[in-house]
Amino acid sequence: MTTTEVSRLQRQAVSITMIATAVRMVLAANLPLVADEAYYWEWSRHLAFGYFDHPPVIAWLIAFGTAVFGDITLGVRFFPVLCGAIAAFALAEATERLAGVRASRFAALLLAATPFTIGFVLATPDAPLLAALAMTLMLVVRALDPDATPRAALIAWVGAGVAIGLAMASKFTAVFVPIALLLAFAIHPALRVQFRRPGAYVAVLVASLVMLPVLLWNAQHEWIAFRFQLGHGLNAVSNGSWWQRELELLGGQLGLVTPILFVLLVAAIYRDYDPNGEPRRFALAQVALFCLGFFIYSATRRRVEANWPAIGWLPTLVLLAAAQQELRTVWERRAMWLAGALTAIVLVHVAVPFLPVAARKDPAARLRGWDALVSATAPAAFESAGPAATGAVPSAAPRFLATARYQEAALLAWHDPAHPEVSAINLLGRRNQYDLWPRFQDRAQPGATLVLVVPDTSMHPALVDSLRPHFAAATPGALTAVTYRGDTLTLRRAWTLSDWRGTWPADPNDPLKTR
């Protein structure tokens, strides 16, 4: 292949990645935030080295973006979108080192077309996780290059340590990659030499240093994030039979990478998982097999979200793109077209819903309609209060706004132009980051008023009933409908709990009992 042709193929790979990034950036700037994004935006307003649910990288990325662009959707998503470009360039280079520049262009196409990369539009921990893991894989391929000098290999291992440290500081599941590489070194005869070289040990040390702030934060908070994630992934939960969960996992992966591509990716793992084959390909196949295998096991115990196994597909995309062939098979071309078409349909539908799906059943509709709830609750929460039913509360009584769910607390804070402090009261729901920040009972003084938004439309919602004894009065507000395209998505009611007595229900499940 001539130098001119190499340059042309490299430019095409860069162009593919930049076009995909530009499309994601346009969508990121114009789509409303999903609930989890608003939740992570709340984290960015309270920067720390750890949080209840995940490590901190996504919060810091959002903080950097909003510092530049302000509290707008583009600010929240700008750096997560760039993570998609980083992942694409890293996977393309890894592929080029394995099979040449033509294969790297195919890797760029695969990553642009595969539906799971739609996640790079959103500000979630998956964006920095996948970018850092792609960098890790690229640097490991470079470190294991048989032509690499000892110095070049060591530098690559140092970089891999930084990258995997950042990946683990994005989402703890990144730890599967070094575990899988350890297994690959033990199984493949040509890779066992890595046990006698300093590179991998240096990478572990560097990764540990990168993770040190996260570890220290967790040590100071009773290892709460580690305990939550271990339970989240391994605790048995009775939500259907194991085979139903496995089928759901399979269906999710068929949607994540499309059916034809799924078969080709599994075949790529099978082809390269050869203990006597090319060492770097075997290492990538081991990473893919271990990561996917873990989530197959996890599904025997509890439901697995479709996006969780995405870390296993990254090395598999490299293996498929690096297949030794000049011309792609007809099935690979069909897979590319199908994946690209489905990705385009999903992106267009999210931006301008056109599929014949009822709004209440459409995930894209959940992005919209929350301004109505803000309009209904903000005046109740922040206008001066009139006298309570008992006449004991002065008109200037402090008022606080809270919800029964962390997602809605974050959405209310985001959609209100004033971005107020909104709490989540988790007495009857799962624990989350709001339990670690000052809560109503930590901030309020006796006599305060709590405006509580609940999804229960009855006159006796369980959360309100649990709080009634601690307030002088509980007054229901009108029902507020969250609607989109004329369809009611959900109903909420705001209750005004007046004249706090200074007491609170016992909470045996407080995540930090020593607080």
Task: Give the tags.
515 residues; 19 helices; 8% strand; globular
Q: What structural category arises from helix and sheet content?
A: alpha/beta
Spatial order of strands in the largest sheet: 2-1-3-5-4
Report the sheet with the most strands, covering strand number, pairing sense and barrel closure. 5 strands, mixed
Query: What is the chain-wise order of helices and strands?
Result: HHHHHHHHHHHHHHHHEHEHEHEE
Quantity of strands, as a count: 5
Radius of gyration from the CA trace?
25 Å
Give the low-pLDDT segments: 381-395
Quaternary state reads: single chain
Number of domains: 2
Provide an overview of this structure.
This protein folds into two domains: 10-210 and 236-351, no CATH class; 364-500, no CATH class. It has helices spanning 3-30, 35-44, 57-69, 73-99, 101-113, 126-143, 150-168, 176-187, 199-220, 224-234, 242-257, 259-272, 279-298, 310-321, 330-351, 370-382, 406-415, 440-443, 462-467, and strands at 399-403, 422-424, 449-454, 471-484, 487-500. A five-stranded mixed beta sheet has the order 2-1-3-5-4. The chain is globular. 56% of the residues lie in helices and 8% in strands. The model is unreliable at 381-395 (pLDDT under 50). Helix 2 (35-44) crosses helix 3 and helix 6 (126-143) packs across helix 14 (310-321). It has 515 residues and is of the alpha/beta class. It contains 19 helices and five strands.
